[in-house]
Specification:
The complex is a heterodimer of chains A (about 110) and B (about 110). Chain A is mainly β and about 110 residues long. Helix content of chain A is about 0%, strand content about 55%. Chain A has strands spanning about 5, 10-15, 20-25, 30-35, 45-50, 55-60, 60-65, 70-75, 85-90, 100, 105-109. In chain A, strands 2, 4, 5, 9, 10 and 11 form a 6-stranded mixed beta sheet that branches. Chain A has a 5-stranded antiparallel beta sheet with strand order 1-3-8-7-6, with no helix packed on it. Chain A starts with a strand and ends with a strand. Chain B is an all-beta fold and about 110 residues long. In chain B, strands 2, 4, 5, 6, 9, 10 and 11 form a 7-stranded mixed beta sheet that branches. A 4-stranded antiparallel beta sheet of chain B has the order 1-3-8-7, with no helix packed on it. In chain B, about 0% of the residues lie in helices and about 50% in strands. Classes of the chains: A mainly beta (about 110), B mainly beta (about 110).
């Protein structure tokens, strides 16, 4: 079946450092979505990318969808303690929305 | 507030028992998804319904079943519970089934003792 892997699994950064998580799918995705789950919370939708090579920005967050539509990345510039949480990518080859393994980000002040 | 309501918030039960988790989707959303999240793990897709019909199935155990009612609320039934079923169960809803963004409820934490 389809697998969506994310690396790294964990990342600890000092506040102000940059952070990147990578998402790789075993199959081509029609689109990719990113979610953030704060500790003790539920996943919250961040963004959706649809086009091959698409890049979208949300303040300090930059999202990219690969040319082959099988990978994606999320880059956070100058992390803040509010960025703490687990970041999931999610992709649908069909109607199923399969979530990646997640990257847990810890930011030290 | 995502607009998705899940009840109960917490459930503690014994092995072998059966429980029902309930989800009310966001107003206007026709699709309901169920996910299982074990401690510090990812989100495992269980099942999706769209406007009352089963649309997609994940790795859902035979002991688990779900349905979506005419008023669009959904229930997830877990039977013959085992210790390994202890997890956070999330319901999410979306406008349609064409990969629109998901809005998650706060989850039901199930503990099987």
């Amino acid at each position: 079946g389809q697998q969506v892997m994310q690396i790294p699994q964990y990342q600890h950064v000092q506040e102000g450092e940059d952070f990147t998580t990578y998402c790789n799918s075993s199959t081509t995705l029609s689109n990719i979505q990113w979610y953030k789950q704060r500790p003790g919370g539920h996943p919250v939708f961040l963004i959706q990318l649809v086009k091959s090579g698409e890049v979208k920005k949300q303040k300090r967050l930059t999202f990219q969808f690969g040319e082959a539509k099988k990978n994606s990345s999320l880059h956070i510039t100058a992390t803040q303690t509010t960025d703490v949480g687990t970041y999931f990518c999610a992709g649908p080859p069909t109607d199923k929305l399969i979530f990646g393994t997640g990257t847990r980000l810890q930011v030290f002040p | 507030d995502s607009g998705v309501t899940q009840t109960p918030k917490h459930l503690i039960t014994a092995t072998g028992q059966r429980v029902t988790l309930r989800c009310s989707p966001r107003s206007g959303d026709l699709s309901v998804y169920w996910y299982q999240q074990s401690l510090d793990q990812g989100l495992q897709f269980l099942i999706q319904y769209y406007n009352g019909e089963e649309r997609a199935k994940g790795n859902i155990l035979e002991r688990f079943s779900a349905q979506q009612f005419p008023d669009l609320h959904s229930e997830l039934n877990l039977s013959s519970l085992e210790l390994g079923d202890s997890a956070l169960y999330f319901c999410a809803s979306s406008v349609n089934s064409n990969n629109s963004p998901l809005h998650f409820g706060n989850g039901t934490r199930l503990t099987v003792t």
